């Protein structure tokens, strides 16, 4: 599947319910509390938090790979992963804060990262800032992986990055499957999760093919 289409589909899936909820708020219309309301329940919030946690690891390690990877296909994958994880993080942050502007793929590529007191509270900058502040948002496993890649020699880097990405994507896939198997009622969120799940599966297949070459 064309990755640009996936990014557009993800942003479109979240934009419609966000704009609808903003319209309801501006007109004083009570929000619909049915499955199509777009409101997030505990299951949705847990899914978002778990996906962001794992996604930041994938993003940070891929940024390192852009500088250190030797295999051309692996470096290309790292660029894809950086772009897609940035957009997915923006989409998920927008879903958590419907009053903020919906994220777009174009914004994902142009938005500069900010940290510290100058960081904006918008989903776009929040996602970027969080991704560039791993010590404050990563768990121990994520920090250890980043440190391992930073210290890895050129000869061993590709194998370590590949192994970490495959494991991380399998964990990400498990998070999506767990949410979808929980009988979710939020149709908008389900659609985003299904798109993400398909892309994660594609990435696992691509990484496996690259792993067969990188020995």
TrEMBL record:
<feature type="region of interest" description="Disordered">
    <location>
        <begin position="102"/>
        <end position="138"/>
    </location>
</feature>
<keyword id="KW-0732">Signal</keyword>
<dbReference type="InterPro" id="IPR025419">
    <property type="entry name" value="DUF4142"/>
</dbReference>
<feature type="signal peptide">
    <location>
        <begin position="1"/>
        <end position="20"/>
    </location>
</feature>
<protein>
    <submittedName>
        <fullName>DUF4142 domain-containing protein</fullName>
    </submittedName>
</protein>
<feature type="compositionally biased region" description="Low complexity">
    <location>
        <begin position="102"/>
        <end position="136"/>
    </location>
</feature>
<feature type="domain" description="DUF4142">
    <location>
        <begin position="124"/>
        <end position="192"/>
    </location>
</feature>
<dbReference type="Pfam" id="PF13628">
    <property type="entry name" value="DUF4142"/>
</dbReference>
<dbReference type="InterPro" id="IPR012347">
    <property type="entry name" value="Ferritin-like"/>
</dbReference>
